Amino acid sequence: MAVRYKLLRTTGSVSKKTEWKAVPVEYRTVGLDDMQRHIERATSQTLADMVGALEAIRSEVIDQLLMGNRVYLPGFGYFSLSIEGERYEDPRSHRFRLRHAAVRGVNFRPEKAFMKALQEAEFENATYDEPATEMPASAKVEAALAELFAEQSFITPHDLRKRLNLSRSGVYRLVAQLEASGKLENAGSAYRKIFVKGKA
Which CATH number fits domain 138-197: 1.10.10.10, 3.30.70.20, 2.130.10.10, 3.40.50.410? Predict the structure, then answer.
């Protein structure tokens, strides 16, 4: 799948350097739950293993950054702190220091191999695309349902939303249609829908 982008006019001081900037159009935010199946197929790690390892790494990275160290994660890159505060000159020594020093953010510098892998990206201009308002074709919905139920015995609106790349309102319109037609049956509650395959 291509990386979609939009060209936007720049404003402020940036506009003096260039009139346009390219901004990626994000499909959605992907978490461990989304990546779980791919990682489990490629390794012997379960979701519980990954969550435990990531929590241990997160805790250690925080500890090292708090000690003033730069952290290197092989395959990813380098993490370091950025600092902010009010510059203050000592009236007696005339030396500068920061008053109210605080962590401004965390800098990340990817390693060369990480960046090299990203050079394979393909791009698609979405500057002039209209927002998608149409529901997916019935054949596409049927195929998505078949794939999802082949993987698990029940599905959620979130599963359909990810598979068909729908908006939140779009997926709830779709599941209402599928329920009404008998293709899905709600085995959960009215507020937390969990669907099993319908009899239609």
Answer: 1.10.10.10
